[in-house]
Amino acid sequence: MPLVVGLIFLLLFFTLGNVRQAALILLAIPFAMVGGLLALLLGGLYLSVPASVGFIALFGVAVLNGVVKIAYINQLREEGMSLDEAVLTGMVLRLRPVLMTAVVAMMALIPLLLASGPGSEIQRPLGTVVIGGLFSSTALPLVILPVLYRWMERKVLQRREAVTSTLASGAATEATT
Questions:
Q1: pLDDT, tens digit, for every residue of 131-146?
Q2: In the chain, what are the domains?
Q3: What predicted TM-score, i.e. pTM, was given to this entire model?
C-alpha cells in the first residue's frame, strides 16, 4: 500500500507540478481508508487480498475526485479569478461530476455486495471496501479540501507579498544611497 500511495503522489506531482497540492489531494486517501475499514467492520468482513484490491481501486477514485476539483480551481485562478471566488466556484461547479462518479461506482458495485454462491467471498469484501470508502472520501473532502486549499494558497500569497515588499524596500534604500 505505501508503494501505491508513493506512486500516486509522484503522478500527482508530475500532473500538477506542485508538492503542496499533490499532498492536499492525497488527504482523500485516509478518508477513503476510514470508510472502507468501517464498512468491512460493519459487514463483519476481514481485511483480505480482495479487500486490499478494493482499497487500491478506491484510492484511484478518491484521488481522481481531488484532481478534478483542484485542477479546475487552478484553471479558474489562471483565468484571473480571485482565490476565494475560484475555490467557491470550482467546488460548486465540480460537485456534480464528483458526485456522479461516486454514485455510479457505488451502484455498479452493489451486485458484488449481494453476491452469493461460489466467488462471493472474493467479491463481497472488494465491493464493501469501495462503496464504504466512496461514501467517506466523497463527503468529507467536500468541506475539508476547499478550506485547506484556500489556507495553503493564502500562505503562499502572503509569503510572496512579504518577499516582494522586502525586495522593493531594499531596492528603494539602495536607490537613495
A1: 999 999 888 788 888 9
A2: 2-145 (1.20.1640.10)
A3: 0.80
